[in-house]
């Protein structure tokens, strides 16, 4: 299949592109390279921004795609609260420009990188897809709103969508050739790794008085290769079933910040300094996925996501 991957030079995109190529798909990446790395992909790259209608339209004029995987969003929660306009404009208008270009060129299948951020402070754990949607960040709000926009493009024009609500992405390729490389980095695991490598003096944990067994936040860390395989499954589903749907993509298990820190200490053999700091606003105590829907409908299983995974 010929697939357009927006944001394919970014963290999750580049790992998914590698798996798509391995599975024999033809891939073109569209990315503004603001956060992506062109060295991370080995397929044609079009450097462009989704806010530029002409740039995205030209891609569809040159090639005929069977489907689109849409990763290209701004994804820094903290920044979205300081500069909401940037997030609403890029994540929503950018996505609309993509959908209009798809409509104009009769491409009617899209997989979207949604997020568990739209659930906000979940009422029930594990979190199911039908949990109430009350985002506590502008970033999470853009994910919820774009899912609604996708539903209208399905209803009005028959563009079928799969919304993949990722939990916390983690990990790297097994051969270490690509991995997570964000500037600025805001994700826990790479930040703790940087501390273990001596690049930071200490690791601060934001609060240890949450309602969890060790007092630190619990999250569901999903390996980037498991995210990649979920995208391949969702493309097959769109082709075979031609139906829109949404799925949680998580492991179904939560780990606390302290468990992550202790595991990295153990694996690295470095006993770095850890300090407890104040809570950050907007952090729910615990979030982990009910992943029974994606397991059942897409026959998907996480393979690499255990904190204690042994390579075989
Ligand atoms: N990393 C996570 O834990 C996580 C969790 C849930 C959802 N997501 C979503 O998954 C997607 C990928 O996340 P990631 O961690 O790989 O982020 P990333 O920043 O590494 O990748 C996003 C890519 O999109 C590009 N991009 C952004 N806006 C663009 C635009 N307007 N036009 C063209 N290119 C643009 C960036 O340059 C980057 O290469 C995002 O939509 C993000 O919101 C990520």
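^ Assign residues to that structure.
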């Amino acid at each position: 299949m010929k697939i357009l991957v927006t944001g394919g030079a970014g963290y999750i995109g580049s790992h998914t592109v590698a798996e798509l190529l391995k599975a024999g798909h033809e891939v073109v990446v569209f990315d503004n390279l603001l956060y992506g790395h062109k060295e991370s992909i080995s397929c044609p790259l079009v450097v462009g921004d989704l806010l530029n209608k002409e740039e995205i339209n030209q891609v569809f004029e040159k090639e005929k795609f069977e489907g689109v995987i849409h990763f290209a969003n701004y994804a820094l929660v903290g920044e979205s609260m300081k500069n909401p306009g940037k997030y609403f404009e890029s994540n929503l208008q950018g996505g609309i420009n993509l959908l209009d270009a798809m409509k104009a060129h009769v491409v009617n299948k899209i997989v979207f990188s949604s997020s568990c951020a739209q659930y906000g402070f979940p009422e029930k754990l594990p979190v199911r897809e039908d949990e109430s949607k009350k985002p506590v960040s502008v970033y999470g709000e853009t994910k919820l709103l774009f899912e609604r926009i996708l539903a209208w493009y399905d209803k009005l024009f028959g563009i079928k969508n799969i919304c993949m609500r990722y939990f916390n992405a983690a990990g790297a390729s097994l051969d270490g050739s690509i991995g997570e490389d964000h500037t600025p980095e805001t994700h826990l695991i790479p930040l703790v790794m940087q501390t273990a490598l001596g690049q930071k003096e200490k690791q601060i944990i934001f609060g240890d008085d949450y309602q969890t067994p060790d007092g630190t936040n619990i999250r569901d860390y999903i390996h980037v290769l498991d995210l990649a395989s979920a995208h391949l499954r969702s493309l097959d589903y769109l082709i075979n079933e031609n139906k829109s749907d949404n799925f949680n993509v998580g492991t179904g298990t939560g780990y606390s910040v302290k468990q992550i820190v202790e595991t990295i200490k153990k694996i690295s053999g470095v006993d770095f300094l850890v300090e407890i700091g104040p809570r950050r606003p907007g952090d729910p105590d615990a979030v982990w996925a009910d992943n029974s829907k994606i397991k059942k409908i897409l026959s998907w299983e996480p393979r690499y996501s255990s904190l204690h995974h042994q390579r075989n």
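The longest helix spans residues 84-104.
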